[in-house]
Amino acid sequence: MKDVKEFLKDFGQQLKKRRKMMSLSQVNAAHQMKIDYRHYQNIEGGKINLRLDTFLKLVEFYQMNPKDRPLDVSSCINLFSGIDEQNTPNLAKEYKLEGEAPSPEGWSALYHDFVETGQAGFISVNCQTGLIDQINEKLVWTLGFRSPGHLINRGLKQIFTPESSEQLQVVLNDRSPSKISKPFMVSLKAQAPANPIPMMAVARLQRDFATGEEHLHLMVLDRKILDGESKKVRSLLVGQQNELSSPPMHVAF
Fold this sequence. Notes:
The protein is elongated, with a radius of gyration of 21 Å. The protein is built from 10 helices and 5 strands, in the order H-H-H-H-H-H-H-E-E-H-H-E-E-E-H. A hairpin with a 6-residue loop joins strand 4 and strand 5. It has 2 domains: 4-84, Orthogonal Bundle (434 Repressor (Amino-terminal Domain)), CATH 1.10.260.40; 88-236, PAS domain (Beta-Lactamase, 2-Layer Sandwich). It has a 5-stranded antiparallel β-sheet with strand order 2-1-5-4-3, sandwiched between helices. By secondary structure, the protein is α+β, with helices and mostly antiparallel strands.
């Protein structure tokens, strides 16, 4: 069975071959299919995953069929279901941020600079119930929902892929007081037929002294932020000791 990367590369080569047979430039082909030129260029280069509707549009335009290029059914299933998480980019590793954990001050600065300004996503999960009790609009829109109400009191599996849900459940079960994690990779579910969305996450446990409840706070940053603000993010991930010597103080978000 081909993996998704190999499938996309082979498929892109077939598109290029077909396009040249039709004496079309990439610009002309993209225009006729009403696909953004840069997007089409990346598809033909095998650099990005495909939505199902785009895939079908390409197959129809170039009149492709299994006799011309046998389709690997398993690879197609992986491609459109988004289950090929092994090939999902690890943004923390890609931007060389995975080895640094923020100090409490660094966490607050990240929250202020990126969450409060609406650039980054934020989730709060009740450690006792494992249910989401707060999620910001940035993440709601990213996931394709209209309001936070669709996700409040839902489990992690509602918005994360199975692998990422299991990873976060381990963090929930850990319950290390005031521990701040190093940046790590998570994948968000997306509305079908889109593929999972890779994010870099940083997690922190917070205790509400008024109620005694513990909450896992999670900040998630997408590629757009990291492309433009990687130096700033790195400067805030100061890598100081992430276990506080004093009792944790409740932070209201």
